[in-house]
Amino acid sequence: MALIDVQSFAHGDWIAPSSSARIVASAIDGSSIARSGHDALNYQDMIDYAKFTGGPALRAMTFHDRARLIKALALHLREHRDHLYELSYQTGATLSDSKIDIDGGIGTLLVFASKGRREMPDETIYLDGDVEALSRNGTFLGQHVCTSLQGVAVHINAYNFPVWGMLEKLGPCLLAGVPAIVKPATSTGYVAEAAFKVLLNSGLLPEGAIQLISGGTGDLLDRLGSQDVVSFTGSASTASALRSQPNILNNAVRFVAEQDSLNASILGPDAIPGTPEFDLFVSESVRELTAKAGQKCTAIRRIMAPKTQVPALVNALTQALDKIVIGHPANENTTMGALVSNAQKHDVLEKINTLSAECERVYGDPDHFSVQGADSEKGAFLPPTILHCDNPRSAQSVHAIEAFGPVSTVMPYEDIEDAIELLNKADGSLVASVITHDTDVARDVVLGAACYHGRLYFNDRTSMKESTGHGSPLPHMVHGGPGRAGGGEEMGGVRGVMHYMQRTAIQGSPDVLTKLGNQWVPGSSTTSDETHPFKKTYHDLDIGESIQTDFRTITLDDVEHFANFTGDTFYAHMDEAAAAANPFFPGRVAHGYLLLSFAAGLFVEPAPGPVLANTGLNNLAFQKPVVPGDKIRVQLVVRRKTPRTSEYGEVRWHVAITNQDDESVASYELLTMNHYT
Ligand code: NAP
User: Fold this and answer.
1) Alpha helices in 40-121 (DSSP H)
2) Is the CB of 233 under 6 A from ligand 1?
3) What integer pLDDT is reported at residue 39 of this predicted model?
4) Minimum-distance ligand 1 atom for the alpha carbon of 490
5) Which homologous superfamily is 271-467 in?
6) How many CB atoms lie within 10 A of CB 227?
7) Is residue 1's pLDDT more than 70?
8) Which CATH superfamily is domain 526-675 in?
9) Which CATH class for the 4-257+496-502 domain?
């Protein structure tokens, strides 16, 4: 295989590695496969290119435009993934490891694309939460909004997931409208560079949206300011060195860190041998130990079992691990590939050595194991290794040292309180799991340990077929953890997008809030004309356009007819004395649902037209009872419009039902689907 020249992409140019470039070796046989690194990139030009070319172009797009862009990038990448699988073998990854990395990354982009379309507006300003009433008469209101940062995001990624690691950061960042400079880890940067090239060559991205550093970051971090973000994934020591740089501290540069953690899994007290939970625990533990040869930030490093179950568990793990085939990652029957490099292998062996002072090895001998289809001496292969720590309460290293490879330590616990204490001893982790069919145990763990962990994963016989796995961070859910795990949080749907946006509290009149959110706020101006709004197409409807209906009197006959017709003969509608005894009612009252039905009867335009369907109703509140003899009328205001398909969009209407004294009796949000034309 010819040596790959891993390039950087800076201020619009591809830049080849320089003479000082580092040689990257194959995980399979140690041969040289790539050159990566450069003497000096012009980092200020890179920042300026992102800030003044990429940023404005991205910010000119709406969230929906960016979501469509992200989806198109994901689909384009999917077309080119075979080449990425091929390259990934050299990192020691099997095909199923690469699928986690490459397909997982593509899937993550698709989730962000879908969340961007469904949960964010077709706008450039994101409204965070509801309008806050700040004044008695509603003429002065508050609203939190989020707008795109006007700087650049620097993404520094770990070596273990060169594609997923890049995409899980790019998805939310691009959705936020912020350009990125991606700096992959050098040892697998050739895979990241290949994926980056696919993204860039798609021609889909605006100029300046993404750049790539293959090699060191020089003085880049010293040049960042308050509008920039560093999003780092890697070891705790690198995170600590980078986040404490004076410029990062002095300019309060946002620094998100996802770092290593001593994740744990608890075998529930109820999950004894013979239960589905016991078998599930064994298979989850083995998967986490062997997938990516244990080089997953979320892998289970500490396996906790009731003291009495430890021998049975070690026995079951042994039997399952005996079936693991270590070998050339491209071989079909290989179930565990190699570590990324011989340096990484030696680092793991050293860590096992340190752990061995407090543990004994019960499975895996690095000097005696077989490797299929590759040379175990030349390649970075290691066997899965299980250590046993008999006294985890006094032991230190098992709760502190991460052997970033196929290594886990089994430890006993006395009862669930003891297990929770052990769980929290690692001082913050990305994920902890509990395999239990006992919901009391689950609740105890949440109360005792959730604050120490970014994610808690419960699994049992009910969820096991559809569960996603202890070690899989999902784009819908937050990924990160407190303390040792870095104190960061990524993904989590729209939450992850907010890392690249500024939240600002806006105070002002209803008209100001309507204008900036392009969403009608009660109290702000309305418009109306001769034409009923149901006769207008989606595009012809304006925010704030309204209709006020005539009055309709509610009679006792109406109430009784409705009660007998629907079967809702609740006493408040039918029995004067009983209704009057209820503290909410003056006597017999109209059904709330009768009011809704009459409201529709008042505002609807019956002929076929652009309104296709009523698809829902939100935030219904009945504010004042309506008694026979009262009159009601309805105001309908176009509150918000959202495109949904190529033919129609959703219109949200603010509906207010008032009585003859202009008092509110009910309000809600009505959803309709309207043809565009
Ligand atoms: P690492 O050595 O800390 O490196 C991480 C990244 O930082 C690499 O891109 C590295 O680039 C870069 N880097 C190192 N020194 C730097 C400096 N002075 N300035 C700028 N960048 C610098 O970690 P790794 O070995 O790649 O990854 C393994 C670790 O990452 C494990 O501890 C694992 O637990 C953790 N991890 C955590 C997560 C998570 O989500 N929490 C995910 C995956 C991995 P070079 O490669 O060029 O040195």
Assistant:
1) 43-49, 55-59, 63-79, 81-89, 95-98, 104-119
2) yes
3) 77
4) 40
5) Aldehyde Dehydrogenase; Chain A, domain 2 (3.40.309.10)
6) 17
7) no
8) Hotdog Thioesterase (3.10.129.10)
9) alpha beta
Q: Is 451 labeled as catalytic in the residue annotation?
A: no
Strands 32-36 and 126-133: unpaired
> Known catalytic residue: 377?
no
Taking only the tens place, the pLDDT of each residue in 160-194 is 999 999 999 999 999 999 999 999 999 999 999 99
Q: Which of 168, 258, 277, 489 is catalytic?
A: 258
Atom of ligand 1 nearest to the CA of 187: 46
pLDDT tens-digit map of 41-82: 899 999 999 999 999 999 999 999 999 999 999 999 999 999
User: For the range 366-374, what are the long-range contacts, defined as Cβ-Cβ under 8 Å and sequence gap of 24 or more?
Assistant: 369/326, 370/326, 371/326, 371/327, 371/328, 372/325, 372/326, 372/327, 372/328, 372/331, 372/333, 372/334, 373/327, 373/328, 373/331, 373/334, 374/28, 374/29, 374/327, 374/328, 374/338
Atom 34 in ligand 1: residue holding the nearest Cα: 260
Q: Which atom of ligand 1 is nearest to the CA of 257?
A: 41
Q: What does the pLDDT look like over 111-168, one tens digit per residue?
A: 999 999 999 999 999 999 999 999 999 999 999 999 999 999 999 999 999 999 999 9
Q: How far is the CA of 259 from the centre of ligand 1 (A)?
A: 8
The DSSP code sequence of 267-304 is E-TT--TTSHHHHHHHHHHHHHHHGGGG--TTS--EEE
- Strands 141-148 and 126-133, bridge-based pairing: antiparallel
Of 598, 534, 495, nearest to 126 by C-alpha is 495
Phi first, then psi, for residue 176 (nearest 5°) are -75, -15
Tell how far the Cα of 158 is from the centroid of ligand 1, in angstroms: 4
> Is the CB of 433 inside a 6 Å radius of any atom of ligand 1?
no
User: 75-115 pLDDT, tens per residue?
Assistant: 999 999 999 999 999 999 999 999 999 999 999 999 999 99
Query: Counting beta carbons within 10 angstroms of the beta carbon of residue 439, is it exposed (0 to 12), middle (13 to 18) or buried (19 or more)?
Result: exposed
pLDDT at 372: 94
Distance CA(207)–CA(215), nearest Å, equals: 22
- Ligand 1 within 6 A of 258 CB? yes
State which of 182, 232, 235 you would mutate to test the pocket of ligand 1, scoring each by most atoms of that ligand within 8 A of its C-beta. Answer: 235
Distance from residue 240's CA to the centre of ligand 1 (Å): 11
Q: Tell me the CA–centroid distance for residue 560 and ligand 1, in Å.
A: 72
Domain limits, the chain? 4-257+496-502, 271-467, 526-675
Average pLDDT, the chain: 96
Q: Best substitution site from 108, 154, 156 to test ligand 1's pocket, by max atoms within 8 Å of Cβ?
A: 156
Q: Which atom of ligand 1 is nearest to the CA of 158?
A: 26
Ligand 1 centroid–CA 290 distance in Å is 21
Question: What mean pLDDT do residues 557-566 have?
Answer: 97
| Section 308-327 average pLDDT | 97
